[in-house]
Amino acid sequence: MALLVRGAKIVNYWGIEDKDILIENAIIVKVGKNIRDTVAKTIDAQGKFVFPGFIDMHTHLRVPGREDEEDIFTGIKSAVKGGFTTILCMPNTQPPIDNYEIASRIRKEAEKINMADVFPVGTISKKREGRELSEFGELKKAGCLAVSDDGDCVANASLMRRALEYAQLFNLLVISHCEDKSLSKDGLVKESWLSSVWGLPSIPEILRR
Question: What is the dihedral of CA 157, 162, 165, 168, to 10 degrees?
């Protein structure tokens, strides 16, 4: 089936252009001005914007272990509904995404669904415990684009340094959860005179900057 989107404002990194878009069998085959196609169904997009698919760098598919909250299919379906065609899923799952087997299974299941590109984020440290580096090379082979101990900060500076060095070696992005749990532990509200009056455990303002 052919579809002609007429007169759309196409947003690209270099600016906005008024052009038509011809789509055949769900694939964009032509972008240009005054495209003529007598077979295609036409949509008048005058005054409307067309964007490239968005990328969400921080999603939670909850697989494995918490499929009662979300799974790969429902997560992808929600993403596509919102215009996101590529998502990265965070590794604070049960068990964490800290090895080739778990990461590759997520990739394969997402490819079967075939609605959006899904890339797992592997853990920086095994089991997200902040003690020993995960196998970055194996995570990369499984399709990971980044590593993170999302939900926990890597408090060991030496381990974090090695993580940054190995991530550079394997061309992996490092997504750091910047929170010192020794300062924020049990905090319920921002530290202020009001938290003192109410007697509530607080989180120092410096952690929010």
Answer: -100
Which residue, 71, 147, 155, 70, is CA-closest to 110?
71
pTM of this structure: 0.83
What's the mean pLDDT when you consider all of the chain? Answer: 92
Instruction: Please indicate, yes or no, whether residues 199 and 154 belong to a single structural domain of this protein.
Output: no
Number of domains in the chain: 3
* Domain hosting residue 19, numbered range: 2-50
Q: Do 161 and 59 share a structural domain?
A: yes
From the list 172, 118, 178, the residue with the least C-alpha distance to 146 is 172
How far from 165 is each of 101, 143, 155, CA to CA, in Å?
24, 19, 16
E strands present in 83-206: 84-89, 117-122, 146-147, 173-174, 189-190, 202-203
Handedness of CA 67, 62, 145, 159 (dihedral sign): negative
Contact yes or no for 120/91 (Cβ under 8 A): yes
- Calculate the alpha carbon distances from 188 to 184, 195, 196, 201 in Å: 9, 9, 12, 6
Instruction: Convert the pLDDT of each residue in 84-143 to its tens digit.
Output: 999 999 999 999 999 999 999 999 999 999 999 999 999 999 999 999 999 999 999 999
User: Tokens at residue 27, please?
Assistant: 């694939």
| Residue 174 CB neighbours (<10 A) | 16
Sign of CA dihedral 16, 21, 26, 29: negative
